[in-house]
Amino acid sequence: MRQKSDSCFSSHSNRQDTLWKKGYPNIQYGAQLVTLNGVKFKDTQKQILQFKFAYLQSKYLVVDQKYINLENIQMKRMMVPQQNLACLKLNNNFDSLEIIGSVICIGEIYDYCKLYTIQENFESHYQILKLMGKGSFAKVFKIRQIENQQIYAVKIFNKNKMFDNEEENQKSLWKEIQIMRLMNHKHIIKLREVYEDNNKIYIVTDLLNGGELISHIEKQIKVYDESLVRKLVYNLLDALAYIHERKIIHRDIKPENLILKDENDISNISLADFGLADFYQNDGQYLFKRCGSLGYVAPEILQDQHYDFKVDVYSLGIVMFLLLTGEQAFKGSSTSEVLQNNTYGKIDAYKLAHCHVSLEAKDLCQQMLNFDPNQRPTAEQAIKHPWFKVDNKHISLHTISMNRIPQNLKGQKEFLFSLTPLWVNKSLRSISDSSDNLCAQTLNVRDRTIKEILDYHHFKLDSTVYDLEDDYIDEQESVANRIENHKLLVKQRSLP
Predict the structure, then answer these.
(1) Domain membership flag for residue 1
(2) What is the rounded CA–CA span in Å between residue 327 and residue 353?
(3) Nearest to residue 321, comparing CAs of 358, 362, 378, 356?
(4) Which of 220, 382, 391, 412 is deepest in the core (most CB within 10 A)?
(5) What pLDDT score was predicted for residue 61?
(6) Is the pLDDT of residue 439 over 50?
(7) What is the pLDDT of residues 277-333, one digit of tens each?
(8) Are residues 340 and 452 in the same domain?
């Protein structure tokens, strides 16, 4: 087992092989290309490499007929004293490469490569301003870049807490970073760069200032109409079509992951948190197969069936239902009842049928919530629905308000995960958005199917609330230890 001071990326395949590969990489047509002129290359032995052409494209540095995959290798920028030059050093576990050129030229190369590589000395580049949220394994801070004074956000993981299930935790981390690097869409959160030191991993992203969508509606605008819902759903379908085109499934579409970029523009929404996202696998084999959030997850996931991109459409349909009616799609007086209704797609059809919105809006919502995924539209098909073409004067002007009736259960904040503790409560609650009467419970369902959990007569929720201020949980006191083959990973109260 590696020492705690080692890199979480040291076992990544790109670190475990030679730095240079022969030939040309397989690069998507139309990817940005940056030609490297006026630079020198030095290899591991400090020998100058002669070359005819060099360029950066996608995640690759191509030099003549060989290339370097930049993904998760280490990068460090240095100044060359008294020569007005700069140096960029790239290395993995075996080889290194130095790129030497003018400060401006190296700066441009650095700005390109920082998305794909791992850097060190985070605190030399950023100033931490404010704690924004925290969970079991990570905290989110508002930060300022020292060089240009730009404001961003950083998600900081504690590496020392990743040693249990270490291999799975590392793969989860690599997967999220890999997917976020592919995202370049106006309604999807954008990754900027990744840092690592002995104890922490720092994922720097754009700062989304507006807070969670539903919290903003409840606290700020109070009431809204169908035209706003249409803008929001269109923008989110556009984002889903983008990620699905790249063969990625998000698998955790829910209000907490829909964040406003600016509180003054509620339609400017961003899809966040790719901790449960994965590349679509035709054979259904995923690192974590059964995952999502109770009340928003598609039935085929809960029923352990083969699923595809349409699980995201279903989850967005649940969000759309909430926005159109102001209430949750699945009713229930207990968590088991909510889970039953979610598992079999028993939405509150009466509420949708009698809400004061256009027939087109109801029709699209019903299509997105079709229990049969074969009859459910793709994101690309849904975005072409007639609702988005109807003139504003033909849609309902009735005001809508949130009416999420408090229920005597934790169902609206309960997450179902499979196999891993890394992403337990990974959806970090904003401190300002949290409410004291809501809490989250995460269950490991590795040893039981959803049906077995529902059929188990002694299954119930524990009312104990754990304080994660010290990130400590006494699992011996939890009710899950009294349930055969069923382990409670963590239970967290909402942040004060």
Answers:
(1) no
(2) 13
(3) 362
(4) 382
(5) 97
(6) no
(7) 999 999 988 888 888 888 999 999 999 999 999 999 999 999 999 999 999 999 888
(8) yes
Looking at 252, 278, 312, 433, which residue is catalytic?
252
- For residue 22, the tally of other CB atoms under 10 A from its CB is 8
pLDDT of 196 > 70? The answer is: yes
Same domain, 151 and 255: no
Amino acid at 340: Q
Q: Are strands 191-196 and 118-119 parallel, antiparallel or unpaired?
A: parallel
Q: Is 95 annotated in the active site?
A: no
Asked whether residue 13 is assigned to any structural domain, the reply reads no
In this structure, what are the phi and psi dihedrals at residue 463, rounded to the nearest 5 degrees? -95, 0
Q: 């490297």: which residue's tokens?
A: 36
Strand boundaries in 114-262, DSSP class E: 118-119, 126-134, 138-145, 151-158, 191-196, 200-206, 211-212, 223-224, 248-249, 258-262
Which domain covers residue 185, as residue numbers?
Answer: 134-192+200-206
DSSP string computed for 181-221 = HT---TTB--EEEEEE-SSEEEEEEE--TTEEHHHHIIIII
At 424, list the tokens: 């337990």
Domain count for the chain: 3
In a domain, 14, yes or no: no
